Amino acid sequence: MTRRSSKEGIRQSRLGRIAPLARLGLRVGGRYLARSPQLIFASVERRAELRNDLALRSAEEVAEELGSMKGVLMKLGQMASYVDEDMPQTFRSAMARLQHSAPPMSPALASSVILEELGDAPERVFARWDEWPFAAASIGQVHRAITLDGRAVAVKVQYPGIARSIISDLRNVALLRRVIKAAFPGMDTGSFIEELGERLREEVDYLLEADNQEYFAQYYEGHPVIHVPRVVRELSTARVLTTELVSGERFEKVLQWDQHERDMAAETINRFVSRSLYRLHAFNGDPHPGNYLFHGRGRVTFLDFGLTKYFTDRDLAPLVEALRCLVIENDGACFRSALERAGFLQAGAPVTTETVVDRFGLFYSTVLSDAPMTITPALASAIVRRFFDAKGPLAPYSDVPRSYVILQRINLGLYAVLGSLNATANWRRIGAEMWPFVNAPASTPIGEAEARWERQRTEADKVAAAR
Amino acid sequence: MDQQPQTSVNHMEPLARAFSRSVSEHPTDGGLFGPQSIVWRVHRDRSFPLAGLRSLMIQALHPLAMAGVAEHSNWREDPFGRVAATSGYILTVTYGDTAAAHKAAARVRAIHSHVNGTDPVTGLAYRAGDPSLLLWIHAAMVDSIVHVVQRYGRGLDATGADRYVWEMVRFAELVGVPAKDVPASVAALEEYIESVDLLQATPAARDSIGIVLDPPGLDDDMREQWRELGQVAAGTLPAWARSMYGYEEPDPESMEREPVRQLIGALDVAFESLPGVMEARERIELRMRRAAGKAAESG
Prior knowledge:
The structure holds two protein chains of two kinds. By secondary structure, chain A is an alpha+beta fold. Chain A is built from 21 helices and twelve strands.
C-alpha cells in the first residue's frame, strides 16, 4: 500500500520539480548527460573476461549452461558471495564456480531476442548497436547502444528460455532444500527458499525491474551523490530492459583509490541503503560490488534493481523499535522484546537478556557509539559469522522471519562491501539523520548536500501542489 | 563402522582429476575419433553419471563379468577411485590424442590378462580378456549411453544414435574385440543384448550394485541426491534387468525429463566446481567449434 501511494506522489510531483532543480548547482544529471552519447558509448568498455569464443549460440546451449538448476544455483551463489567465509570448505570452490558468469550470447542469438521482443533487428531498433555485450547480468547480458533519438543506453537482454526454466527449477523445492542445506548448514532453508524463489520469479520479469528502477530513479532524481539510471520504457519488455548508459569506475578500481575517496563512496552506499529503507520503504536487494559505478567525491550510480523488496510499516516497526531500544535507550529488555515481536527470537527462550544483547548487539556495533569507526574486513566477517553461527547459545531459539530474509542478506552484503573499502565514518550520526525516531541534522558535507536536495524536493512538491 | 567424516565433494575429486587429465592441453592430434565425431559430442553430456550407473547395473548381470570384478578389483574398498579409473579410460580414449588412447588401451589389456578364475555361482571359468565378455561390457555401456542421453541429455536423434553406435565399434576393438563381432547400429546392439544368456543377478552383483547405490562415506545431503540418482538409473533399466534385481517399477513422475535433469544439474554444479573440470570442458567445446568452423570453411 505504502508503495503505491508514495510512488504516485513522486510521479505527480516530478514535472513540477524540474524547474527549481535545474537552478541547483548540485544537479546530478548534468554530470552524466552533458557528455555526448557517442563519448559515453565509447567510454563504457567491454569487459575482457567475457568469453566470446564460447558464446552461446542457441536456446539449447543456454539451457545446457543455465537450465536444470544451474541458473538458480548461480544466482544463489551470487547472493551468497559475501558469506563464503563461513561456508564449509568444500563449498567454497563451488561458490567460486557459481560466481563465474555464463558465456555471452552470440550476436545472432542476442539479436533474435531483440527481434522477438522489440519487433525488429537491433540494427534497426537502435541507431547504433554493439553486437557483443559489455557486461554480464545474472540471467542475461548488457549491450551498449544509441537510440534513434540519440540517447546512449544500456540494453539488458535476457537469455532465451531462461525465465521458464528458472520458474520450473524453483518448483523443485525438495532438491533446492537439500543443496542449500549442504551449502549453508546454519541457515533456515525453508524461509530462505520461499523468499529467494519469490524474488527470482520477479527478477525474470524485466517489466517489474523497470518499475522498481523507475521508483528509485524518480525518487533520487537530482540527488547530489546518488544516481539511478532512468528506464527507457518504449524499448523495454519482460525480456529486454533499456536504461540510460552510465560510465564510471568499477568497485575493484575504487579499492585502489585513496582512503578519503573510499570513505566517501562508502558513506554514499550507506546513505543509499538507509534512505531507501526508511524513506522509500524499499530495498534494492543485491549489494553486489558489481552493481555500483563510482564517479569520485562520493558520487555513486546504483545498478540492477531486479531484486527489490518493499516493506510495509508493519514490517519495519519492530526493527525500528529494536534499534531505538538498543542504540538510544540502551534498554536490553526493550530490545529483546522488539526482537521477539519481529520473530527473530522465540519468546521466553531460556537465555539471559545479557546474552541476547551480546549476541544480537554485534549487528548494531557500527552505530552503538557516537564516534568515528572503521568497518574493517575483520569486523565485516565477524558479523557474517555471527549471523550463520549454528552453534551459538541463541541458535536453537533464533530465526530469520521470511519478510526479513532479503533484508538480512543485504545487510550482510553491505557490511562486506564497506569492510572491503575499510571505510571510516561516524556511522551513528549518519544513521541518525535517517532514523525516524531521531531525524538528526546533517552530520557530514554529503549529508548537508543531501539536506539541501531534500528541501528543494519539498519546495518543488509544494509548488506542484499549488498549481 | 568407524569412518572418517568426509566431505561429499571430495569423493568426486579423483573423477575431476581424471577428466582434466584426459583432455590434454596440448594434444598432438585429434585422437581416435576427432572433434567432429558424434562420440565427442555424446561423451560430454551432463547425463553421463546416470548412463554410467545404468551401465554398471547391466554389466553386473553377466555372472562371469561380475566375478572378474568381484574377485580381482579394489572396487569394494575404493568405489570412487574405481569409477574414476574407468571414466578416465573412457575419456582418454575419447578426448586424448591417438598416442594417449593407445597407451591407455594397452594398459587395460595388460591388466585384463591377469584376471582369470572360476565363477563361484555358475562354476564356469572366465578370463577378463575374453572377447565375448568384453563385448558384453561394451554393449551394456553403449546401450546405456544411447538410452540415457536420448532420454535426459542433449538432442540425439535416431540417426545420431546409429552413427554413435557405429563410431563406438572402435572402442571395443581397442580392448580386443574383433570389429566384425561388434554391433554397429542401435538395432544390432539391441539384438545382441537380447541374445546373451547367463544373465542373472548373482550375490556378487547385488552386493556391488548395493555399494554403487549407497557408497560408504558420503555425507547425508549428498547421499540423498546420489540415492535419488540411483533410483532413476534403476528406473531406466529394461524390464528384464529390473526384475532380475527385484526392483519395482519406477514412479513415472520421478522419471520425467525435467526433474531428472534438475537432479543431474545440481550434481553437475558440484562436479564442475572442482579444479580443472570447467577448463577441460571449455577445451572440448573450443576444439569442437574450431573443427566445425574449419569444416564449414572448406566445405
